[in-house]
Each structure stands twice: as C-alpha cells, then as structure tokens.
Amino acid sequence: MVKNEFFRKLNHLLRELPKKERDEILADFEEHFTIGFNEGKTEEEIIQELGDPKDIANAELADYDATNPARQGGATSATRSLLLAIVLIFFNLVVVAGPAFGIFFGFIGLWFGAICMVISPLLSLLSYFQSGFDAFLFTFFVSLACCGVGLLLSIALIYIGKFLWYVCAGYIRFTIDLITGRKRS
Amino acid sequence: MNVQFKKGVLELCVLVLIDTKDQYGYELAQNISKKIEVAEGTLYPLLRRLTKEGYLSTYLGESTEGPPRKYYSITAEGEQYMNALINEWKQFSKAVDQFIKEGAGHGEE
C-alpha cells in the first residue's frame, strides 16, 4: 500500500463524518507523512507504523458517535428508519410510481416507434408486390426519410435513457440515504 | 499487549508525555512507540478526542524544515484529569502487583 491508497481508504472509511472533520483528520496524517519523509522514511515504513486505516477510522467513528447525540441510540434510530421507510414506500407507491411507470413505458413506446421507422424501407418492399412500381417508389422514398428520422430519434433516446437512468439511480440512492440516515457531502 | 487494556493506558501516557513537553503528533507517536508497541495511527483519534474534551489544546509551531506543525499542549483541566488518572493507575497497578505476588508465592509452595 502506498500513501495515496492509505488516504483513499481512510477517506472512504470516514465518509459518514462531516467533510470538515474528515479534512482535519486527513491533514493530521498529511503532516505525519511530511515529517516522516523528512526523517528519511519511505511511504511503506510510515504506513506500517501507522497501522490499519480500518482501526484508525473505527476509533474516529466511535469517538464521533459518542460526542454526537443525534446519531446515538440504536433503538430510536432503528424505529426512525422503519417509520421513514414505511412513509417512503407509501409516498413512492402513490405519488412516484404512476408517473415513473408512465415515463418508462412511454420511453419503451418511443423506442418501438424509432425501430419501426428505421426498418421501414424494408417494409416498403411489400407495397411493390401490392400496388406496382410507381407507388412503391413513393413509399420507398418516404420510408427512407422515416429511416433518417428514426435514426435521429434513436440517438436522442439513448441520451434520454442515460438521463433517466441517472435520475432513477440518484433517487434510489437518495431514498436509501434518507432511511439509513447517512450523510454525503 | 491486550488492545482494550492498552487503549486506557495510552491515554494516560499521552497526557503525561505532553505534560512534560509540548509536542507534535509525529514526535509523540515516536516517543510512545519507542517503548510501547502501538499502531501510531490510532494515537491521532485519541489526540483529537482529548482536544475536543478540552484536556489538550493545539497551536501551530514553526519548524526548520517543512510547513508549521500542530503542537499539542495540556490544559489546566487536562492536568487535573491526568492526576486523577495517575492516582487510579497507581491503585490499580498496586492491586495487580499484589495479586501477582500472592499468586506467584502460592505457586511456589
């Protein structure tokens, strides 16, 4: 393990702490490394002496929990989580689920439309057998235009899909954070 | 040494060392690990807690090489706390010594 990795691990393990606290802790270790380097120690030696980031983080988190009554008391916070979860489930079923399904199926419908438009030149061949060459030419060129529009629509849909995915994932993460009472900053 | 046991005693050691002389984190870690086997990283949470509890205070001191260092010094409150811990420790270690002596003597008979 090298210095960067040590800091990355520590930072990750301390993610539940407010940013200010975390920065203070990391700054102390930054100083420790700087002095260690000045004394001719290598990254590995210093990290070896410091020990497992997990132990450091556990000690910090335990102290933080002890001095912050808001996060104390497993029972009350569990009840709070449960109540919040129930409220959120109802809220999601009643308010969020309808529009979300609507948007989801609308999105799928648009995809079907786009695919049909893209393959429409192939379908236009059918009109050749039914109504002769002139009609076929007309249908064929119209369908080519449709194909172009369909391709553009597909590209737009890919972007829209990505956007919907981000929104969806973000919302789910937000909900989970709300229930577990975790803070991100 | 047993981890839980060391944790309690370490607090006392940190206070005594800082009472003797103001020092920065790295220095303190070196001074302690010279005599007691300890993961130096876990001293920092301890220092932060003692500072939050008002037993230690910090200030930035210039250094000849590199950026200024964070020095820890003991407060009046910290000194009181330290003396209480020292008394507890003396009583405790005296009792333990006695148990060991009695136990060892008993074994020889």
UniProtKB/TrEMBL annotation, chain A:
Question: What is a single Pfam family found in this protein's UniProt entry?
Answer: HAAS
**Residues spanning the membrane:** 81-104, 110-129, 136-157
Species, as recorded: Sporolactobacillus nakayamae
Does Transmembrane count among this protein's keywords? yes
- What keywords sit in the KW lines? Membrane, Transmembrane, Transmembrane helix
Stated name of the protein: Uncharacterized membrane protein
UniProtKB/TrEMBL annotation, chain B:
Going by the entry's taxonomy, the superkingdom of the source organism is recorded as Bacteria
Residue ranges occupied by any Transcription regulator PadR N-terminal domain in the UniProt entry:
14-83
Q: Which organism is it from?
A: Sporolactobacillus nakayamae
Could you tell me which InterPro entries the record lists for this protein?
Metal_resp_DNA-bind_regulator (IPR052509), Tscrpt_reg_PadR_N (IPR005149), WH-like_DNA-bd_sf (IPR036388), WH_DNA-bd_sf (IPR036390)
Q: What is this protein called?
A: PadR family transcriptional regulator, regulatory protein PadR
